[in-house]
Design goal:
With about 260 residues, this protein is an alpha/beta fold. Helix content is about 35%, strand content about 20%.
Length: about 260
């Protein structure tokens, strides 16, 4: 069954805010800082793990938005839950509900829209902090909305994706050129992990330490050094982005 979390109570006289659908892929995964920021903004978390049998909603009418997080699997995998999640993204797109795909969730969005999800030709991975370079579309979005893109962001992936036809590429990188996309008015995909906390970083670099030996991956100590140097700007961007993203849902609900 879905696993709801409770947001802080709404102010007296205010309508309760709808929960955000949170899709996770491992038994002990958490939504990290994204979840905390949503709770601070008054939204409950409707946590579901389709991999373990949780259903996905037939409509987004009862949710303020949906976030599909990362995982060790590939958007190209034949598993039934991977196909089901990828197909389900069409529900959010058709209803123009806020959607955010993080890493695997971004790759699922790209694949749903017909784009390629692929491993690097030279077997490289991005695991650690790497530069983020906003495109012209990304600069325009930042200017209109009032956020500042972080210059370095945290990654943990071996696959990337092409920008789907009709979508806009908002940010690029080096070994994996597409780092952030927007599809339609309210769907976004990002290759990086703004949700990561030091505890999550410790867990990932411990339980999956073998991935730190992949070509292009950074040593463990560089991850924590990068967090000290870059996390403040990532947190600032994430807060501004989520405010904008949630407002898209409020505008939709009022229409």
């Amino acid at each position: 069954m879905p696993r709801p979390s409770t947001a802080r109570p709404a102010r007296a006289g205010a309508l309760p805010r709808k929960p955000v659908l949170i899709v996770l892929h491992q038994e002990h995964s958490t939504p990290g800082r994204v979840g905390r920021f949503l709770l601070e903004r008054g939204h409950g978390l409707d946590i579901r793990r389709p991999r373990y049998g949780d259903p996905l909603p037939e409509t987004m009418a009862d949710h303020a938005g949906a976030v599909i997080f990362g995982g060790p699997m590939s958007a190209n995998d034949p598993d039934e839950f991977v196909k089901r999640e990828t197909e389900w993204i069409g529900t959010a797109l058709r209803e123009e509900a806020p959607y955010l795909g993080i890493c695997l969730g971004a790759q699922m969005l790209a694949r749903h829209l017909g784009a390629r999800v692929y491993a690097h030709a030279d077997g490289k991975a991005e695991i650690g902090y790497y530069p983020l370079l906003p495109t012209e579309h990304g600069h325009d979005a930042a200017g209109r909305i009032g956020w500042h893109w972080p210059s370095q962001v945290y990654h943990w992936h071996r696959e990337g994706f092409d920008c789907p036809q009709g979508a806009r590429c908002l940010a690029t990188g080096d070994d994996f050129p597409v780092q952030a996309i927007q599809a339609g008015p309210a769907a976004f995909g990002i290759q990086f992990h703004p949700e990561v906390t030091p505890a999550m970083m410790h867990r990932w670099t411990t339980r999956a330490h073998e991935r730190l030996t992949l070509p292009g991956a950074q040593p463990r100590e560089a991850h924590f050094e990068g967090w000290m140097q870059h996390d403040a700007s990532v947190a600032s961007w994430l807060g501004a982005f989520l405010d904008h993203w949630l407002a898209l849902g409020a505008t939709r609900a009022a229409a």
